[in-house]
Predict the structure.
Amino acid sequence: MPITMEIMISFIFSSLTNYVFPFITLLGVLIFVHELGHFLVARWCGVRVEVFSLGFGKKIFQYKPGDTNYCISIVPLGGYVKMFGDQPGVDVSEEERKYSFTHKTVWQRIAIVLAGPLMNFFFAILIYSIIAIIGENLKSTKLADITPGSPVEKAGLRSGDLIVAVNNTPVQTAEEMYKLMDHRHQSEVTLKVKHEGSEEIVDIQVPVSSKPNPNLFAWKDQISDLDGVTPYSRGTVVGITPSSPLAALKVRTGDQLISISRGMEPPQKVTYWREIEKFFSQTPVSQPITFEFQRPAEQAATEPEKSEAGDLSKVETFKITLDGKALVSSYSAENLGFESSELYLDQIMEKSPAEAAGLKKGDRLISIDNFKITKWEDVLSRIKDFKGDKRLTFEVLRDGNLIKTIVEPKMTKTTNTLGLEEERFVVGIGPIINFAPPEIITLTTANPFKAIYRGTVKTVDFSFVTLMTFVRLFQNKVSPKNIGGIISIGQAASETFKMGIFAFLQMMAMLSVNLFVLNLLPIPILDGGHMVFYTIEVIRGAPLSLRKMEIAQQVGMILLMSLMLFAFVNDLTRFFKL
């Protein structure tokens, strides 16, 4: 077989496996569930169902065992249930009216129309319940880094503490922990705490504060907070001081410490910076220490070698052993000449104020306008507070030399995470990222009733989130550019399918909730539009005129097609980065 043919077959097979199959499966299941709701309730109400179709257009498969023609059509972007007498004004004989949709009571018609969206709602509950039984990956109650001098630190909490109960109510996830504090803003709660490295459980009373809800799509404007618990822990990427013991052994800024051992002991894996500090405090200087580092292949290669470095996602692993007796009086990061890398610059944007001021990759930030910088949030805060009335004095350490330079932040239009354009001052710098992931636990729910409860709560919560998305769109707090269509759904289906069944089911549940909410919108042609017609009929005691419903349907069709076109254009813009 010619090589070009093999490549073509491989490409087609890969496309079918990675894109077409996940997309068709995702949409097909959700459409089937939705239309099944209409079908079952219609049959229950005695309506004759003439066609049950997955897809639109030319039928590529059909089977008719009785009154209903079950078929699969060529365009897999929807589906429909064709019911006998479903067109207002159609001439139906007296003896056939018992099978006609239009001649059913208004409450029966409401039930049939509402059944489709409700099936999507209940299907989402089913999926979330299955996920709860299989096991959910959730953030544990292990605290990230604690800010020194903060209220919770003064109360007795420490970085890495594990919270096992709030006011004697056991908790396993951060979600459960903060939910129990939701109504206790500006008061105190008693936490049962297990300090890192200890099995003893102690009671600590901590103050509960509140903060603006970072989730724009939530109902609550304020949520509970523990003042001083940071959202992340510092990782083990290091910044190296020139002329330090580690620098002499060729360790570089940006290397990541992955394990550490004393003497002949087996290596201990390290994920958080606090683990390094604790290790040093427990190690006498009389014992040698062996460090194991990782370095990205891109950094490991010298300049001439970079073009031949191969896969830059690969890393180089190396070990060094340090005899502390000959070098330092005691082990500490400071004595050995390294620190967390978050204040070392990794990115200097082209044509930015930082580049114009002469800042360089690898510079270590010391101060801004004589304000000592201790964490990256300090940098963001100083730039955010800049009013444009003066320039900023940056003090950096470069190759052991202290350098001062004047930076004039530039007002720039940027697009935030919600797709809205905003004006703010920027400098054009980025740090060497050094955030460790939070601890994740797999939580399984063996009790099926608890699993269903969990699934119901998640479905209701996400329904509110979906509804609030429309509210925020109308409030112009979210850009319409975030609206996605078929291409976005296809990409999401493909990516989650590659990630595994858990992620794919999560995506299916979320889309099912979206279909539930979207179909209930009061837009003629959607189920919600029909619900409006029937509600008016209940109130006034008679249906709207055929002409008024036809006009409303035409308007609804125009609105729906416009929305689909807008979403498609957004998809193309994102896909081709126009």
